[in-house]
Every structure is written in structure tokens, then in C-alpha cells.
Amino acid sequence: MPDEKMVPEWKMFLPSYVHTVSKYITQKSAETLKQYNLKACYLPYLVTLFQKGNATMKELTEQTGTDKSNTTRMISELRERGIVADDRKNKNSKKYNVHLTEQGRELVIKSKNEFESSIDVLFSDLSAEELSTLIKIMKKTQDSIKGK
């Protein structure tokens, strides 16, 4: 915890910091995905599927922190564009896995380097030790939010 004199200032700074970083990442994501005629709102789904290989709609909803109807709409749009597919045996199947198509994997791989470069810029003034500490802190706070 920061020293007691800093606490009020630190607590007031945090929302502004989170907003600024979120806005920067969203803007850079939008710029990267625009080249592929996609919006930044697809990014959480693409990243999740790239990392996991496949996921159920429920897992995608939980992982992206969105609601079920939004996940359904986003995946439907990505399916129509040929970026994702699923393993449904028939149209009425309730539970199925969604995965990136070859086209989807290529898109994520191509945009990954650009996106990572923009993240590198964000943290370029940090030493390796500071970055390592920051990552540990971010994971720890994320776990506490998720209730682990």
C-alpha cells in the first residue's frame, strides 16, 4: 500500500489512469482492426479464441465480461465474415464450441504484432523489473476482483 499521505491522491488518480489506458488501448486496437474492416469491439473475442483455441458461448461471455446477447451478436457477425466457425451438428444445438477459422487465425497473427507494439510504447519508460512488478500487481488485483 502507498504511504498514508499518498493514499487519497492515489485513489483519485486511479480512475483517471484506468480510463486513459483503456482509451489508448481501444484506440490502438481500433486502428489495427480497421485495416481488416473490423471494430475494436471484436478484439476480446478474437483474443480469447486465439488463446484458448475454442470456447463455448458461455465461456466467451464470462471471459469477455459481456452479456450473453452481445456475445451471440458478435460471434454471429464474425461467423458471417468467415472469421469464426463452430462445431454445431445442427442449427438448434444449444451447446457448441466456437473457434477461429484459418482466415481468423491469420488476421489475429497479422494484427498481433502491431497491437503488441502499441502496448510496448505504453510501458516503454518502465524497466524490466518495474514491468514485472506491474504485471504481478495487475494479476493480483484482477484475481481479487474475480474473487479468487
TrEMBL record:
Keyword vocabulary terms for this entry: DNA-binding, Transcription, Transcription regulation
InterPro entries: HTH_MarR-typ (IPR000835), WH-like_DNA-bd_sf (IPR036388), WH_DNA-bd_sf (IPR036390)
Keyword ATP-binding among UniProt keywords: no
SMART domains: HTH_MARR
Start and end residues of each HTH marR-type domain: 11-143
Gene3D superfamilies: Winged helix-like DNA-binding domain superfamily/Winged helix DNA-binding domain (1.10.10.10)
GO molecular function: DNA binding; DNA-binding transcription factor activity
Entry superkingdom: Archaea
Matching Pfam families: MarR
The protein's name: Transcriptional regulator
